[in-house]
């Protein structure tokens, strides 16, 4: 029965594990999950955490990543994914859903949702995907207000408040590093260095700030795809693969639908599908059946049923 209907770890335990992992000297590998089922696979394979991407959540709703999703939508999906595994789940809070008071409320709601942390970015509202051109950032002082609001609102000190800076492609790397220092001074637990190009940029950030650093290894963007070993050598503490699982899934779905459209059957696709037995294994069907047999299929003493 352990963990059958949800996580066996408390939200507090997960947050403590996340903070410990960031300070452990071991790179925390955190793939994105677009559903609780994907999160279960992330946990089974042995990754260190689960990430909930704002871009993925938007795309799953059929929307572009331009700040259209609501706090309720994001927190609701985050809660479902966080509850699916014992891993800490880290979520994208975009620009905080409004002004500092909104940011404070978002942090509280994410904490109540069982999440281990969130990241806030210094883009203006409405934001856009971090690897697109034409972004704009708010003044450093405004971002500091966002961070301080989130920090003031959290109740569990292990809830990670991460500051993402998108300034590298707008104001230059030196300005982005200055922002990162200011965000760390304001109390950010981690810095998310968005849309850097290559190892030299990552190395400059590491030399400049003392707090944990998060790398974004998203495909088809501005950043070179560095390996876990490279990021470890650069001194980074965590890495997210935010959209990878969605891209893999959507590519396969499109191939399959086109095959059905042209061939009139999915029979030629069976070798590319997760087998029913594997899905049942991942969902622990056999244990649910045992649970049902043990508790509900019985006869009470005295003949009463």
From TrEMBL:
Q: Which reaction does it catalyse?
A: (2S,3R)-3-hydroxybutane-1,2,3-tricarboxylate = pyruvate + succinate
Q: Which EC class, in a word? A: lyase
InterPro entries, alphabetized: ICL/PEPM (IPR039556), Isocitrate_lyase_ph_CS (IPR018523), PrpB (IPR012695), Pyrv/PenolPyrv_kinase-like_dom (IPR015813), Pyrv_kinase-like_dom_sf (IPR040442)
Q: Which UniProt keywords apply?
A: Lyase, Magnesium, Metal-binding
| PANTHER family cross-referenced by the UniProt entry | CARBOXYVINYL-CARBOXYPHOSPHONATE PHOSPHORYLMUTASE, CHLOROPLASTIC (PTHR42905:SF5), PHOSPHOENOLPYRUVATE CARBOXYLASE (PTHR42905)
Q: Which family does it belong to?
A: Belongs to the isocitrate lyase/PEP mutase superfamily. Methylisocitrate lyase family.
What protein name does the entry list? Methylisocitrate lyase
